[in-house]
Amino acid sequence: MKTVALICAMEKEILYIREKFGATLLDEKFNVYEATESGKKIIACVSGIGKVNSAVATQRIIDRYSPDAVINVGIAGGIDKSLKVLDMVIADKVFYHDFHPMSLLEEDENLKTSIFLSDKNLVEIANKSLSKMKEQGEVNNFKTGTIVSGDCFVEDDALSRHLREDLFATCVEMEGASIAQTCLINKVPFLVIRSISDFADNNAGMSYDTFSTTAANQAGRAMEEIIKGL
Fold first, then answer.
1. Which site among 14, 168, 180, 192 is 20 to 30 Å from 49 CA-CA?
2. Which tens digit of pLDDT belongs to each residue from 17-65?
3. Which helix (H) or strand (E) holds 9?
4. Cβ(199)–Cβ(109) under 8 Å?
């Protein structure tokens, strides 16, 4: 049976998955749940917010459960101006927006890159799944693009503009790149998929408070479709 690890930063991001899959608590200390869905063993984890928490959780999941794939699912701030709240983004690549200089990662023998590429098969499955959801009216729009990660909640127009114009980011969050880096070191296929809760601008806090739970549930619904396609 194929094992798929789902890593979420926050409780609200795992709630739909936990309830829909009928997941049972596997490890209370580290917020790990187990379920079987569409013939796959699902290991779902709440990592905690930020790069260190997510990297530690990912390594623990890989060491203990040897997943065939790791998927980071949750919410994000939209950077691409064509996005709307509750649109979705599939990462074809992820990298840090707050790591300087990036060349240090490229010199690391375990990495040799500062840009982490999602598994092409997982990206294809995610695209098919979201296309189906779009046809059924469950998601308005989705894009495949660059997701950037950093240890800050982006709520500043100037920073948002930098991420868009200089880094060509589609959306921004706080865990995807560290999860991807950990997977790359361990040679485990990964994917990052996010639902837009705000626009990472001066009004981000208000938008996040209004839409974060709905966006998290939508990301969980997308994960349900992706699991079927694996």
1. 168
2. 999 999 999 999 999 999 999 899 999 999 999 999 999 999 999 999 9
3. none
4. no
3-state helix, strand, coil in the chain (%, to 5): 40, 30, 35
For 10, half-sphere exposure in the C-beta direction (CA atoms, 13 angstrom radius) is 16
Cis status of the peptide bond prior to 67, with omega within 30 of 0: no
Measure Cα distances from 167 to 70, 79, 115, 162 in Å.
25, 10, 12, 7
Strand partners, 74: 194
Q: What percent of the chain has pLDDT over 90?
A: 84
CB 122 within 8 A of CB 71: yes
Query: In 38-120, where do the E strands start and end?
Result: 40-46, 69-78, 88-96, 116-117
d(CA 219, CA 212): 10
pLDDT at 205: 56
Catalytic residues: 13, 198
Q: Which helix (H) or strand (E) holds 5?
A: strand 3-8
Helix axes 11-20, 204-229, angle to 10 degrees: 30
Instruction: Please say if the pLDDT value at position 120 is more than 80.
Output: yes
DSSP 8-state symbol, 195: E
Contact criterion met (CB below 8 Å) for 1 and 40? yes
Going from the C-alpha of 108 to that of each of 56, 112, 185, 205, the distances in angstroms are: 19, 5, 11, 36
